[in-house]
Amino acid sequence: MPVGEALSQFPRERTWLLPALQAAQRAEGWLSPETLATVAAHVRVPASEVWGVASHYPELRLAKPGRRVARSRARWRPWSRPTTPTAAA
Question: Each residue of 5-25: b (16+ CB within 10 Å) or e?
């Protein structure tokens, strides 16, 4: 669902800022600067206030979610090396 469509269900009032941000994040997956500007224009609030509200709540993402990278559990650990050399047979 596009962000504009998600915002169309909310009245153009300041009191709907937080629900509008939540709906925009559900629609896009995160809150890009363009999305914040769209929300600001829709609810008629300054962009600085929208950014302030979005940055205050930890459940609102201001960065695009990254990929999860699986790392190997077997890593070289310097403290796991033998301290004495082993004799070759």
Answer: ebbeebeeeeebbeebbebbb
